[in-house]
Design brief:
Blueprint (H helix, E strand, L loop, with lengths): L1 H14 L6 E4 L7 E9 L7 E3 L1 E6 L6 H18 L5 H6 E9 L2 E4 H9 L4 E16 L2 E14 L5 E15 L2 E17 L8
Parallel strand pairs: 3-7, 4-7, 5-10
Antiparallel strand pairs: 1-2, 2-4, 5-6, 7-8, 8-9, 9-10
Length: 200
């Protein structure tokens, strides 16, 4: 199922790269519907995670603002969970069938958590999200975005910035939104002289 959704994600990721205020979506055998793209500002939850705004693509027939706010809240919490040394936070954000594709890996939920909790000299110090677009397909939320992740090596003091394009799937479990799948589309790594966002 997620393979199909991932294919949809890539198509929509490219499709949403345009800057039009309205988008025509036509499916086979159905009349054309007009969707609206609305820019929504976001309040910061942490000084180490920056999301200024996102684009919500909707038909206007169903109010998804509450759902959208819950998903963006999860997106802000994700890097904060990864900065934590325990697995409890992952239970609040990942679905039971979560899958991750990236870094040359395909991981299920347990594998992803173990991978992120493995000892590492590299620590995330700051994450900035850009070009965020969110669209709902019935009970599924599709989030495409780019982020810049600043990492600091605590042993060598090296600093690098990852520029990553993503497509995420969000699903509801027991009435709450969870991350169902996350896929990296493109990764570029930039070496930095120092970390301007170092906070510990």
């Amino acid at each position: 199922m997620f393979q199909i959704i991932y294919a949809i994600a890539i198509v929509v990721f490219t499709f949403l790269s345009c800057n039009d205020k309205s988008i025509n979506i036509k499916t086979s055998g159905q009349p054309q519907q007009l969707s609206r793209a609305t820019n929504i500002k976001v309040a910061a939850l942490s000084p180490t995670v920056k999301i200024e705004s996102y684009t919500l693509v909707s038909s206007g027939q169903v109010d998804r603002l509450k759902d959208a706010a819950a998903i963006i809240d999860l997106k802000q919490k994700w890097p904060m969970v990864m900065q934590s040394p325990n697995r409890l936070g992952f239970d609040t954000i990942l679905s039971k069938d979560f899958t991750f594709t990236g870094d040359g890996l395909v991981l299920n939920r347990a594998g992803y958590i173990n991978n992120r909790l493995s000892p590492s000299d590299w620590k995330i110090t700051f994450v900035q999200y850009d070009n965020i677009s969110l669209q709902f397909f019935d009970s599924i939320g599709l989030l495409s975005y780019k982020n810049q992740v600043t990492n600091h090596n605590v042993k060598t003091n090296e600093v690098e910035k990852e520029h990553i394009s993503w497509a995420d799937i969000y699903v509801k479990e027991n009435g709450k939104w969870k991350i169902g799948a996350s896929h990296t589309v493109d990764v570029q790594i930039e070496k930095l002289d120092k970390d301007p966002k170092l906070f510990y």
